[in-house]
């Protein structure tokens, strides 16, 4: 695996590329052009500029998170082909700059959702938290305000204010899109982009829906092994893969993460590794990465990734807010850096134990 760190780019992130470089073992960043709206073609000079900025700091771009999908593609609107063409142009430009992992998601209207972006814990840290009972009491037309007002002044990934200003229209375009239709639209999109991905060696890595069940009556399909396997059968190219996000998939305790990792060997192109603590039915906190702080066994997860020969980028995911840091919720420096070195420590131990056993 290649240890990496999500970075939103200069001007969009409270963290600098130089700070990321000082985290031991860090090989590169996962970044994006944060200000380009979904559907637009990425300017080649902007791609070259961010690549140069990252490389000048002694790191590499190990993947893009995300090139977001325009709602016309997800909802299957008549103008989707134009947006797919734009997406292909962006992929060609990324590919020509040597970028070969692209993360995206296929969630209608909303990206990841939490009911609390700063829930206090006993130790004085705060965490992202989800409670279905609270979500059920929120008017979906107002969820943007709820998330935005708690974001410490940062634009949250996937929560573009320009797009969500049209929330009513967004709901309308998905009004006849059920899970089956959404799946068909996803297959249509992937089939259209696969020749370009194969030409440039770009591995598409769909991010699981977070949480892994339908929200506000909108379908969610990237939620379990069954649906992922169906997607990989429908578009059977090695470039069609997944971002194995442990926290998103494990929001549903029925998802056995090490088993899913082993079953998806060859299709995992990117890994987000974080822990969470179950508090009840559809209720959880995003704990620290450490196994004993949450409900997931991080050793078993890293061991499964090691056993399938995972060689892609791997990053810590949402961190707690600790030591007084004021950053984008989930994306401060301190706790994610702790997560990164912890995951790297597990990886070193697993690698060396394996060598010992085979000596
Ligand atoms: Mn994730």
Helix proportion range: 25-40%
Average pLDDT, to the nearest integer? Answer: 95
Briefly note the structural class of the backbone: alpha/beta
- Given this structure, which CATH class is correct? Alpha Beta
| Largest sheet report | 8 strands, parallel, barrel
CATH topology: TIM Barrel
Examine the secondary-structure arrangement and name the CATH architecture.
Answer: Alpha-Beta Barrel
Relevant CATH superfamily: Divalent-metal-dependent TIM barrel enzymes
Attached small molecules: manganese (II) ion
Q: What radius of gyration results from the CA coordinates?
A: 19 Å
First and last CA, distance: 22 Å
* Count of DSSP-assigned helices: 14
Which stretches are poorly predicted, pLDDT < 50 over at least 5 residues?
none
Q: How many runs of DSSP E, i.e. beta strands?
A: 12
Percentage beta strand: 15-25%
Walk me through the structure.
By secondary structure, the chain is of the alpha/beta class. It is built from 14 helices and twelve strands. Helix 4 (80-96) packs parallel to helix 9. It is globular and about 60 Å long. The relative contact order is 0.14. The mean pLDDT is 95.
What labels would you give this structure?
alpha/beta, 359 residues, globular, 39% helix, binds manganese (II) ion, 16% strand, 14 helices, TIM Barrel
Topology of this structure?
Blueprint: E1 2-6, H1 17-21, E2 28-31, H2 44-56, E3 60-65, H3 71-75, H4 80-96, E4 101-104, E5 116-120, E6 126-131, H5 132-136, H6 143-149, H7 161-164, H8 167-173, H9 179-200, E7 203-206, H10 225-234, E8 240-245, H11 246-249, H12 257-263, E9 268-273, E10 277-280, E11 283-285, H13 298-307, E12 313-316, H14 334-357
Parallel strand pairs: 1-2, 1-12, 2-3, 3-4, 4-7, 7-8, 8-9, 9-12
Antiparallel strand pairs: 5-6, 6-11, 10-11
Helix pairs in contact: 4-9, 12-13, 13-14
The structure holds manganese (II) ion (MN).
